[in-house]
Task: structure prediction
Amino acid sequence: MHTRITRTGIRTVVTAFAISVLSTAAADEFTRGDLGRWQAEFESVVQQGEKLFHGGLGNANTMSCDQCHPNASNTHPETYPKFQQQLGKVAQQWEMINWCIMNPLESDPLAADDAKMIALQAYINFERRGVAMSPGKH
Amino acid sequence: MKKINRRSFLKQGGAVLAASTLPLSLVEVAFGKNNSQNFTFAYISDSHITHIKDNQFVRNWDRGLIRAVAETNLMDPRPDFVFYGGDIAQLGKKEEIDHGLEILSGLRDKTYYVMGEHDYYLDLGEYWRKQLGPDHYSFDHKGVHFVVLNSILTFDDWMYDKWSSGKERMGQMARLDNPQGSPFMVGKAQRDWLQEDLGKVSEDTPLVVLSHSPLQKIYKGWNFWTDDAEQVQALLKPFDKVTVLYGHVHQIQTNQIGNISFHAAMATAWPWPYPATYSQQASLLPRLTVEMNRADPFFERDATGWQFINMANGDVAANYQLPDNRNRVVAYDSKLGHPVDTQYQATDKRIPPQDNY
Result:
């Protein structure tokens, strides 16, 4: 039984725990199936974000994020956190998203950990995939 | 305003035959064998008036158009006419077209219009044409031949068969980055009309062609594109001097293809990013373009504006009037044979918001 969990050298795992996970993969291994599921989870949140970004926020004035940011362009997520002179401090991307929600969209801000905020960021970052991180850049 | 107009107006003039006793508004500038005159016209575009409900409209877009109309009315010398570059409405609704025209009714000068896709795809332009007349036409002014085209048509099956309602079709076309969108085109019927129209015009007559979409190919994914652009360009090729002025892209673009100069108009509503800012696709921004500034996106008129066009000897100088950014002049340089930004063309003359985020 121990041989199944020795790849990372954790030999002190409580036997009872080891038994409990024997029927699936070992605790420190993952399968192609796992990778596929995780990717699917991510992609479904990207898709939610894509819908929210294109008119799915339900704000009364009907304006949507993509009207100014087609394909989430010109959101430059790779530059956050950065000093935002209009806010007078180093700000995170979600704070800027809330600025857009409150001003052009004339709606109420989202909590930083709101599922909608996370989905918006998933979509915005996915559309900018592959671009080098440049925190602080203007 | 007055000073800027006067200076650029005089700068563009060839031989200025102004009697010093005349007030500036009566200055006439004579040139050319056909005894044409220099003149100026205003160019307002892309207001995207958006109806929310009842008597409510998106305030920001109203304000942009109201400001452009007010500033145009302050021009001195007066523009000979005003040109509106399309997309009065956001979703083609009667309320939006009516409200936009109500604001535009404040203009003191004759106004010409071109059809934008946001005016068209709800009812295939029916209400727009009812209010404003034909969507393609030509006219002559002081020795220049003007042609207006409806360049935002698309394939018949997309237009007529794909969607359950005009509202759904309009919603699809209103989304710029829509993977289910369809490319713009002038189409054969209008190209045939254009060929016939141009057949009556001598090749040394300066031509100005006005369309909503660029009659050139920049980025198909956002329809910064007209599918039959090359065929339209071929019809314009015999003429000595051709300028295409277009809206749609909400940003400064400058190009020269053969004998044709291209200038894009700023929107009064909101700016669009340059296509290169979408890192997942390649695009073809013309090399001559000096990008517009994005100085402060927190200011709601940032990177919006309107423009007036000075015409001297048939050459176009686009004067961009930018509320939150320094005004720009992109003028035809006859020595170089293409338009140049009179201040910022050299890369070492550019200022930070033209290069950074």
Observations:
- Residues 32-56 of chain A form the longest helix (25 residues).
